[in-house]
Amino acid sequence: MVEAGRTYLIRNKQTGTCLDCNTGNSWVRAWHDKGGQNQKWVLDREGRGHPWTLRNVETGRFLAPAPEGGDVGPKTPINTSDEPHLWHLSDDGGLLR
């Protein structure tokens, strides 16, 4: 499992692409690993058992569902926000869901 306060590159197991924050706007997309700060995310939480926040290293913005406040499901678009959003992560045999 991940450790709170550490920086991670978040990679899709099936495609090999990484969670990439576009620095010119709030878009988040899957992109090839370029090693940039916009592909690094700090995962943090208040304590064990609490939901996580994901903050982009380059922009300082938080991963958020788009549109904000909408229902979240497997195909929900994501972007970034100045406000932290909470995410539930679970360990699936060494992978995160």
TrEMBL record:
Where do Basic and acidic residues bias regions lie?
A: 82-91
Q: Which domain of life is it from?
A: Eukaryota
- InterPro entries listed in its UniProt record: Ricin_B-like_lectins, Ricin_B_lectin
Q: Which Gene3D superfamilies match?
A: 2.80.10.50
Species this protein is from: Orbilia ellipsospora
Region of interest (Disordered), ranges: 59-97
What is the protein name stated in its UniProt record? Ricin B lectin domain-containing protein
Q: Which residues form the Ricin B lectin domain?
A: 5-66
Q: Which Pfam families match?
A: RicinB_lectin_2 (PF14200)
